[in-house]
Design goal:
- The protein contains 14 helices and no strands.
- By secondary structure, the chain is mostly helical.
- The longest helix has 22 residues.
Length: about 290
């Protein structure tokens, strides 16, 4: 396969009608490692919002059972990408997400913000570190994909364009990013988990590497010390170098699924979508959107 196979394929598709296929090609073929990193950093940013970080800390799920919560989040978000929104497995995953969310009094503006990070952070990651930037079709497909996910999650007033998502995320963070002890505990637990994804000799440098990739407002919200400037430059240069190197590789033929990633560890014998996540309030379940 030609190195630019998936870019050419996505440019031939229509993001208005083929947005799931385009997004699937981006996530599972063209940028599987980068998208996993970018979406992980997107979720990590949300912990710096006190309302979100405090709630996650209070449940204890992202501190005492962080590996399972990490795995469940990734596995529940994948089916619509892999199978489309109308597939029974995707509907089951969305029902599980809605059931968990409906157990808590979460304001709409927090849902909108989280959704915006899924659109904006991956594009910025590819601009900075990917083997190439997203094409216009891929950006538009991402917008339509997450607008559709937002509709299934009954999130109101979702932006209609990438510029709208970007403005929402940046202005929200400027207003809401702040230190909270609970959010810091969730961030610390997540970083400790991320270190275990690597061999023991590089676990400490891996934590430093992660902080080096954080922007200053994010570090300040968690009260993390900034790594030395040289470390920040080397870390970012290493990722950019990786992106340049990947330009020489052939296109990935086989899709990369979440369960194929080595650091998804909670279900070595398989899993049931209906049993993923938490069950904080028995009997409250289902999708709030009429289909």
């Amino acid at each position: 396969m030609r190195r630019d196979h998936w870019r050419r394929r996505n440019d031939r598709l229509d993001p208005e009608t083929d947005f799931v296929e385009i997004y699937q090609n981006v996530v599972m073929h063209e940028f599987p490692w980068d998208m996993n990193q970018a979406l992980s950093f997107a979720l990590f940013r949300t912990y710096a919002v006190p309302g979100i970080g405090r709630l996650l800390d209070r449940t204890g799920e992202f501190t005492s059972r962080v590996q399972k919560r990490y795995d469940d989040t990734a596995l529940l978000l994948e089916p619509p990408t892999r199978l489309g929104f109308e597939h029974p497995e995707s509907r089951a995953a969305i029902r599980r997400i809605n059931a968990m969310h409906r157990a808590y009094d979460i304001p709409d503006h927090e849902f909108r913000y989280v959704l915006s990070t899924f659109v904006v952070v991956p594009k910025r990651w590819m601009d900075d570190y990917g083997k190439r930037a997203f094409t216009a079709n891929e950006v538009e497909a991402s917008v339509r994909y997450y607008r559709t996910l937002g509709r299934h999650l009954n999130i109101k007033d979702v932006p209609e364009t990438y510029a709208g998502f970007e403005q929402l995320m940046d202005s929200y963070e400027a207003q809401y990013f702040a230190y909270d002890a609970g959010g810091r505990r969730v961030a610390d637990a997540t970083l400790e988990l991320m270190k275990t994804f690597y061999a023991r000799p590089v676990r400490k440098p891996a934590g430093l590497f992660a902080r080096a990739l954080m922007d200053q407002p994010l570090r300040e919200a968690f009260r993390y010390d900034a790594p030395p400037v040289a470390v920040q430059r080397i870390s970012r240069a290493a990722l950019r170098g990786r992106g340049l190197l990947l330009r020489t590789f052939p296109a990935r033929r086989d899709p990369k699924r979440i369960e194929d990633i080595s650091w998804i560890r909670s279900y070595p014998d398989g899993y049931d979508i209906e049993r993923l996540g938490t069950f904080p309030v028995p009997g409250r379940h289902g999708c709030p959107v009429r289909h």
